[in-house]
Prior knowledge:
The chain is of the alpha+beta class and 148 residues long. It is built from 5 helices and 5 strands, in the order βαββαββααα. It is globular and about 35 Å long.
Amino acid sequence: MNSVDNDNDDLVSVVGYGTFLTKGLWKNKKNVEPCLVKDHVRILPEGNWYPFVLEKKGASFWALKFSISKEELKQLDYYEGVDAGLYKRVLITVILKNGKKASAYIYVPTEKTIKTWGLDPLIDPHDQWKEELKKNPELIKEFPELIS
């Protein structure tokens, strides 16, 4: 399983879980669909304006999988600070709403970022980012899973 979209070899799948959703990055993209990110937790540190995702066995949350061009992927790497060592792009398997599995890239903090910010899966046991998602009625109307 790879992240290349089967319909178009020039497209790759990406998971949006934070500002990719609230800033509407998913709009006008191909193959937009809800996905369950397993064995990861989304946390919003107090006072922060964007969430992080950390590995946590048994945890899961809903996000959106969508397809972008390889050029757009390079732009996202820049936006996420990959070259600066803030985030890294990793390939994970997600569960789609229809139960099928798919591979997609997700941005997670590097070990340096985790240490610098003192990030821990227990910081946000209730996924406070859902409250930010609720401020986007168009998003929630189309993808109610995101706040379940």
